[in-house]
Design brief:
55% of the residues lie in helices and 3% in strands. The protein has 129 residues and is mostly helical.
């Protein structure tokens, strides 16, 4: 249980390091917030949370994440939180249901574009770093 706060930090809110010299923003190789690297997942809040299927998918997503949250550390040198990849197959249908239910509005498109930009920056960081 000691590692849960650290892993939750890397999963949910860990930000890149800010420096006064180029490159000014440097990702932490131990992980970055999934909210930063995959902000389109925020669209899932629009899903029908009264639906049994949505609840089962969310519960499965959480159950898949629990072991990695209990494990020591987030791995080594990565962009994002790699253990989230295990749970994303269960989060994607929730996201799809949310978009199907309420459409893709301008703020949703902005979240997708932001995620693409952040990941493009991550590719540049990996290539140039």
């Amino acid at each position: 249980l000691v590692h849960v706060p650290m892993n939750l930090d890397y999963l949910l809110w860990h930000l890149p390091q800010f420096r006064l010299a180029p490159a000014f923003i440097v990702p932490d190789g131990f992980g970055l917030s999934i909210v930063l690297t995959s902000p389109a997942l925020i669209l899932a809040i629009r899903a029908d949370w009264r639906s049994r299927e949505t609840l089962v998918l969310a519960g499965t997503c959480l159950l898949v994440l629990i072991p990695s949250l209990l494990y020591y550390g987030g791995g080594w040198f990565q962009f994002g939180y790699r253990y989230a990849l295990d749970a994303l197959p269960f989060a994607m249908p929730i996201l799809a249901r949310a978009v199907e239910r309420s459409g893709l509005r301008a703020w949703g498109i902005a979240l997708i574009v932001l995620g693409c930009a952040v990941n493009a920056a991550g590719i540049l960081w990996a290539l140039l770093g």
